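Support request from a user on the community tier.

User writes: "When I paste my structure tokens into the form, the page sometimes reloads and wipes my input. The last time it worked, I copied everything first. Here is what I submitted, just in case something in the input itself triggers the reload:"
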């Protein structure tokens, strides 16, 4: 069952979301060239120093074909690096806790 469907249009970006009962929420984001959005994706192969195999929020560009690409080369200041380190540690701990439940 689809609840609402809506499109938000900013001056340069379009966001369309179709809400279904969780976890089947699907959002489609199309961004204009040079714009990016932060979304959670698998961290493997990132250039921000986040360990592989975590679901982590990164800056992404998304084209009209719904293909995303991680934005590289953004500067990370000391404050942001500290927050990234804290979040990474929390996610690694959560992953280990989840593994302990599945391996018991």
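"...and here is what came back when it finally went through:"
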């Amino acid at each position: 069952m689809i609840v609402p469907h809506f499109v938000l249009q900013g001056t340069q970006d379009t966001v369309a979301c179709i809400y279904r009962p969780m976890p089947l929420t699907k959002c489609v984001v199309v961004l204009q060239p040079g714009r990016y959005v932060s979304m959670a994706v698998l961290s493997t192969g990132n250039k921000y120093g986040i360990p592989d195999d975590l679901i982590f929020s990164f800056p992404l560009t998304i084209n009209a074909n719904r293909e995303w690409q991680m934005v590289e080369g953004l500067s990370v200041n000391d404050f942001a690096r500290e927050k990234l380190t804290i979040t990474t540690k929390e996610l690694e701990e959560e992953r280990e806790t989840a593994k302990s439940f599945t391996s018991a």
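Agent notes: The reload is a front-end session timeout and is unrelated to the input. The first strand starts at residue 5 and ends at 9. The chain has a mean pLDDT of 76. Escalated to web team.
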